């Protein structure tokens, strides 16, 4: 078993060090390199990995760490300054895109409930892919990079009530718990992350610094990220949002730079694994069966979302 795990790790690393530099050389970016490596290794490629789901679930920690590191760059005061682009541009983007795409879906006759879900889902974007591309191009601190991040942040926030509302649209999806219980659980989780990030984590890092053991700051940083993500997941909320909140609350602490340096290597490797896991889940047979419809649909989606964003 140990040998098999070592072989898998070597395969992932080998695929990454071959695919990523090759795609970067042709100006296609690291993300496409990771995705292509995942397609080759996955169940629809060479079948080195026959089930991508466990890999995808484990690698989501990379996205969680990425949002934590981004949160470390945004102090609460800076986040307050961003409230207009987050709730203004972000809110308009989600609302208008969801309405337009939902209306288009309704024209094909799946019913208004299905059209609402389709419109809301397609209005959202991948935070991991978008921020990784912006980071590669060193555009996160540009005007368009900050606006893109603000919109992505609102999408992550909006995803929480959307996920909670979808079961309410189903006839047989009545939750055993009343809605107010779910709301209370969500508020309790957010409160726990805020209080923990503001007071308990700072004390934890001060203790780790006083002990003088080199690995203690690393362990404390990982505990902060994974703990915040776990608390949010208990309430059925986004793990990434919990890690982002913890990062924001530690952004003005004296340990910010040290925490970031401890998390960064883990974030990069696990984020690469996440993109490979996404590539593994791409069904090449389905693409080969309907290439025209998929390419046309993807192009139309990008065109509609770009036009709405340009208007906003």
User: How would you sum up the global shape?
Assistant: globular
Structural class call reads mainly alpha
Estimate what percentage of residues fall within beta strands: under 5%
Helix content: over 70%
Could you give a short account of the major beta sheet? none
Write down the Rg.
21 Å
- What is the H-and-E element order? HHHHHHHHHHHHHH
List unreliable stretches of 5+ residues. 171-175
The beta-strand count equals: 0
Mean pLDDT: 80
Count of helical regions: 14
Distance between the termini: 54 Å
Describe what you observe in this structure.
With 312 residues, the chain is mostly helical. The chain is built from 14 helices and no strands. The chain has helices spanning 2-25, 30-41, 53-72, 76-81, 83-107, 112-123, 127-136, 143-169, 179-211, 215-234, 239-249, 256-280, 284-289, 291-311. Helix 1 (2-25) crosses helix 2 (30-41), helix 5 (83-107) crosses helix 8 (143-169) and helix 7 packs antiparallel against helix 8 (143-169). The longest helix is centred in the middle third of the chain and has 33 residues, at 179-211. The radius of gyration is 21 Å and the shape is globular. Residues 171-175 have low confidence and may be disordered.
List keywords for this structure.
312 residues, 14 helices, 0% strand
Q: Quick recap of the structure?
A:
This protein is mostly helical and 312 residues long. The protein contains 14 helices and no strands.
What's the structural blueprint in terms of helices and strands?
Elements: H1 2-25, H2 30-41, H3 53-72, H4 76-81, H5 83-107, H6 112-123, H7 127-136, H8 143-169, H9 179-211, H10 215-234, H11 239-249, H12 256-280, H13 284-289, H14 291-311
Helix pairs in contact: 1-2, 2-12, 3-11, 3-12, 5-6, 5-8, 5-14, 6-8, 7-8, 9-10, 9-11, 10-11, 10-12
């Amino acid at each position: 078993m140990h040998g098999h795990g070592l072989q898998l790790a070597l395969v992932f690393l080998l695929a990454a060090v071959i695919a990523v530099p090759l795609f970067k050389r042709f100006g296609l970016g690291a993300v496409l390199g990771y995705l292509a490596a995942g397609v080759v290794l996955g169940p629809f490629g060479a079948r080195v990995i026959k089930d991508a789901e466990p890999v995808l679930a484990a690698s989501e920690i990379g996205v969680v760490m990425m949002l934590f590191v981004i949160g470390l760059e945004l102090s609460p005061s800076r986040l307050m300054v961003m409230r207009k682009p987050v709730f203004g541009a972000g809110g308009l983007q989600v609302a208008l895109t969801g309405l337009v795409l939902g209306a288009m879906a309704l024209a094909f006759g799946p019913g208004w409930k299905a059209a609402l879900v389709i419109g809301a889902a397609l209005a959202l974007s991948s935070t991991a892919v978008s921020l990784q591309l912006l980071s590669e191009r060193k555009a996160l601190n540009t005007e368009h990079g900050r606006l893109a991040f603000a919109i992505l942040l609102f999408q992550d926030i909006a995803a929480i009530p959307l996920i909670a509302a979808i079961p309410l649209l189903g006839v047989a999806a009545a939750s055993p718990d009343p809605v107010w219980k779910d709301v209370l659980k969500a508020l309790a989780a957010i409160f726990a992350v805020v209080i923990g990030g503001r007071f308990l984590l700072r004390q934890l890092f001060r203790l780790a610094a006083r002990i003088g053991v080199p690995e203690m700051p690393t362990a404390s940083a990982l505990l902060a990220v994974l703990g915040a993500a776990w608390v949010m997941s208990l309430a059925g909320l986004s793990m990434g949002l919990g890690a982002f909140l913890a990062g924001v609350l530690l952004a003005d602490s004296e340990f910010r730079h040290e925490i970031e340096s401890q998390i960064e290597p883990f974030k990069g490797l696990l984020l690469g694994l996440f993109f490979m896991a996404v590539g593994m889940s791409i069904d090449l047979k389905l693409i080969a069966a309907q290439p025209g419809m998929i390419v046309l649909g993807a192009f139309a989606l990008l065109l509609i979302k770009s036009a709405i964003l340009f208007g906003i």
